[in-house]
Amino acid sequence: PASWSAPGEPLQIGGNLYYVGTEGIAAFLITTPEGHILIDGAMPTSAPLIEASIRKVGFDPKDVKILLNTHAHFDHSGGLAQLKADTGATLIASAADRPALESGAYVGSEEVAAFDFPPVKVDRVIGDGETVELGGVALTAHLTPGHSPGCTTWTFPVQIAGRTRQALLYCSTSVAANRLVSKDKGPQYPGIVEDYRASFEKLGRMEADVFLAPHAEQFGLTKKRESLAAGDAEAFVDPTELPAVVAASKAAFETALKTQKEAAR
User: Fold this and answer.
1) Can you tell me the distance from the alpha carbon of 148 to that of 107, in angstroms, rounded to the nearest whole number?
2) What's the pTM value of the predicted model, to 2 decimals?
3) pLDDT mean over 64-87
4) For a surface tag, which of 38, 70, 75, 262 has the fewest beta carbons within 10 Å of its beta carbon?
5) Quick one: pLDDT band at residue 36, thresholds 50, 70, 90?
6) Beta carbons of 141 and 154 less than 8 angstroms apart
7) Phi and psi for 182 in degrees, rounded to 5?
8) What is the CA 91 to chain-centroid distance, rounded?
9) How far is CA 81 from CA 41, 228, 257, 258, in A?
């Protein structure tokens, strides 16, 4: 989609949390007194757009100290190599997504050139439940594999309307291009179906005041942006959003699995 590569309008969601992604693909800046944290790099062409948005909200991209990733696919990791080169930031990612990040390939579809992105070195591997800390801010990694082998959901606090809220950046659980079953090639990676189901169960137990996602439409950015501009300081606060998304995605997964099983007979 053209929106994936189109410049986006940056936005302060609340406190030290900013949307700095493209029109259609999310990237989030979390600022601290000791430097900043940037999550996701969007498309391979997106680094200059993200850096421009960081400047537009009043910060210097060179003050980004840490880069994080939700999952190692070209539309969320594509700009990480240039962002790392431009900022000198440390890239922290899951062990299971490290091979994809460092090869620039889509696991299980390495032969599909359209899925490639510039490879980037991972400086630190993070495990489930471990934290990334900078300037008094702590983000917790929750491994929710399926969409990618090391798909990582991030949680962190954010100040909105004078209160500390729990924000959750949801790592995708869509099937998208993934093979769940295949007569000829096999699954995208071994254990993918079990991973999806375990992740749905895990995400179903989690809670969030502020739901965020890797694509703008996945968390209703346009409508929330309008509400925020109209004076609703809590436009991004909705504790019902996470469970609704998990339930809908789980149902879509089971439908896709059934379809792929029938096709593989």
Assistant:
1) 8
2) 0.97
3) 98
4) 262
5) very high
6) yes
7) -160, 135
8) 14
9) 8, 33, 34, 37
